[in-house]
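Exercise 3.2. Students should predict the tertiary structure of the chain below and write it as structure tokens, then compare their answer with the key that follows.

Predict this chain's 3D structure.
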Amino acid sequence: MALLGQTIARVLPSRPCRRTLGLITIWTCFCWVVFRVSNDDHLLTSYYQVEKVNMNTRELLGRIMTGKAENNTVSTPVTMGSTTESGEINILEAVPYIDRSPKLSEADLVKKLQPQMPNLPIVYWQENKKKKANKNASCTKYPDIYDLHFNNKYWQVTETSNGTFHLYGAYLDVRSKNRLGPTVRVLGMINRLEPKVKTFCQLWFNDSKEPIFSKVLEYKYIWYKKWGNYKQGLFQPYLLACQLPKTHWGKAPASVSIVEYQCDTATNNLRVIYNKPEGEKKKFAVCVKGMDFPEDDLSVRLVEWIELLNTLGADKIFLYNLEVHPNVTKVLEHYSSLGMVDVTPISLPGYQPNLPV
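Answer key:
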């Protein structure tokens, strides 16, 4: 036992050492507690400050929306990144950073929208919105925007008893050698080979509140069978022809609708495009099918090709744009500004995808 007591005495430190270690431990614990309390107090203060800012902001927005904002609100937007002379932001004097630019007039809005949706008669709608047809004057009404069935941005749809029509654009043909005389030609796709369904055109003119009815005289197939896809049920491209009555020769329709029966409420309405030539008629034009290469930068080759055609005497190049590389877009914009090319946006109709792949 004596030996064990001596061994323990050697292992344990002396009483003064134990007292010193105890004091150090107590002081360390005290410092840790003080640090935690001060840090938590700072977090609480920050939390309440954030809550106060959020409450002030919500209150300010509420007052502005109800028209009860205080007189000391400033008219100049203040963002959280800005500073004042004191280096602090008075949230009660700040206003939301919103767009306060003046709204476009209705006429300016129409001018902005028409190029974005070139196939819609937006200008005609705007000019004739206050016109009302006489009661029982016609068996049909002019279709408004809510009557139209859109397949996508550029294609409108009409269902018939024998096939679905997807319609893209309408054009007035007044060429002297046109055997039908002045004719409205409608470009569309139909999921039938040699469609037999009888349809009509509702022709709308600016100087009339009632439509002029014209029978669709032909479905002109504009595809070569050897190119493929010549199969019943697949969408096939056609030009529909509607002859203008002699009473309306010399006039350009504002829009046209294709219906199966004359008095149907149309689910399509296309602006009739009539680019009347000015000056001497040109002789050499080139038309290109839809361009679809979003991942291939063919800008240099396109420049070479356009310049070559220009050297050979081409007066204008007409291109249809599905999806192209950004550099190709820049090239097209450049030559469009020079008047050398004419670019028309287009998409695929029906169930076909329009993804940039």
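Discussion points: The two ends are 92 Å apart (CA to CA). Residues 60-85 have pLDDT under 50 and may be disordered.
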